[in-house]
Every structure is written in C-alpha cells, then in structure tokens.
Specification:
It is a single chain. With about 280 residues, this protein is α/β, with parallel strands linked by helices. It has two domains: about 130 residues, HUPs (Rossmann fold, 3-Layer(aba) Sandwich), CATH 3.40.50; about 110 residues, Rossmann fold (3-Layer(aba) Sandwich), CATH 3.40.50. Helix content is about 45%, strand content about 20%. Strands 3-2-1-4-5-10-9-6-7-8 form a ten-stranded mixed beta sheet, with helices on both faces. Helix 4 runs parallel beside helix 5 and helix 8 packs parallel to helix 9. It starts with 12 loop residues before the first strand and ends with a strand. The relative contact order is 0.15.
Length: about 280
Amino acid sequence: MIETLSPMGHVRKVLLASDGSAFTSGARRVALATAKAAGAKLYAMTMVYVNPEYAALAPEVVHKAEQEAWWHLKSVGARADELGVEHELLVINGEDPSHEIVEQARALGADVIVVGQQGRRGLARLMVGDATAKVIGQSPCPVIVAPKDAEMWDKRVLVGVDGSQFSDKAAVAASNLAKASGKPVAVVSALVPAHSEARRQESRDAVDRTVNALRDVGLEATGLTAEGEADRVIVRTAEEQDADLIVLGAFGRTGYGRAVLGSVTERVIGNAHCPVLVVI
C-alpha cells in the first residue's frame, strides 16, 4: 500500500486537476490508482473560466461549460466507484487554473496533486505546460505530473540526485515509495561537462550516499552516473532502467519565498515517458 508518497506523511487526500482533455487522461488514471493503492480520498476538480464581465455577458455559455465540466467529472467519479475509491467532485469557477488548483490543495490539506504533463510537439515540448509549472512552483505538497499515456508505476522508481537539499528530499520520497510498494530504486546523477571536477565528484558522492542509505533500510538500490546534461541523463536512464516513475526535487527558490521550478526538472517533465513526482 502506498502510504508514504509524500515525505511529509501518509497520503490521505489526492487532488486530481483535470480539464477533460486527452492531455490529462494519464493524470486521471494515475490519480485514481494512487488513491486506490493508498486508501486515500480522491478530490477531482476542474475549472470553468469565469470572470464577472464574462458571466454577465454570456451566462448561457458559462452554464454550458459548467454542465460539460460536471459531465467530465462524473465519468471520473464513475471510475472511482468501480475501484471503490471514496471521492468528491469539484467544479470551480475562476480565471487562473494554477491558482485555483493550489488554493484547493491548501484548503483541502491535500497530500499530493496530480496534473497532466500538457505535453506539446517540437521544441515547445522541452518545457512543461505553463499552468503545470505554476502549480509546482506554488504547491504546498508534492506534485505528480503524468503524460497522457501514463499508467500507475509497477516496475522501478528512479530518483535524480545532485547533493542538494531538494534532491535529498526527493531521495526520501523515493525511499518511502519503494518501501510501500516493494519496488527497486535506481539512483542517477549527471556528470555535466561544464561542471568542475569538484562538482562532478559531488554528484558521484551523492549517488553513493543515497544508494547506501536506501540499502541500509533494506531496499534494493542501484546507482550510476553518466556524462551529459542532467535532464537528458535522467530521461535516458529512466528508459534504459525500465523505470516507470521519476522522482525529482523542485529545485531553486527565489523571490518572496516562492518555489520556482528548476530548468532540469521542467525539461525532465516535458520529455519523460512516465509520471514524474516533484517533491517540494
């Protein structure tokens, strides 16, 4: 049973943010499976775009959008019923999806948020969707970002480390997941060509330290370092190791204490074939 997805405690409340599009179909599956495995309550939400002027000028359009939102969420609720997952459906009127998602997470005391990757083609796909990036940057809890074809992980957890406090938090979350699910863990760090030898040694040390810590608590763990840019190394290693969940720290913080999504994490999310758990 997945009881410790979050390093902050047991998972009792899962918040799924879905717009009903194909881009969030993987998020729906992962959120339902996570809630089922953890014995958690699922809160499924979607937002209808409404501002006072729009509501006054086109109330019938707003009403239709609300009906479509409920229709979508009821399909999620029906699947939750099939799985025996306790759930609540939430249609929120607002103007900013990321703001509404974060506010709901805070109000509910959510342990994890599940959102879609919002993947796109070409160069744009290197970067995660704007709303998803904002959710991660402001979230009070870990966030799972799921590609549209994602399923619940059942093979191997991969955690990226670099010796920072954020990657240490990610390692704790990966350990908790592995203990709860019985899955092995692969630990990876990139030897970035532009970095100094001292910095590269820090990466090697971070892998060794994390692997030893995982083995000390009885987990199956392997570690490796690879030459290249960090995001490419992580995505490539996940594919080579047949990992179906990547765990990363959100990295840097700036301005007014708000978290800012790190470029490595952002690019991994945009290119990963599997769900990515971002630990705040």
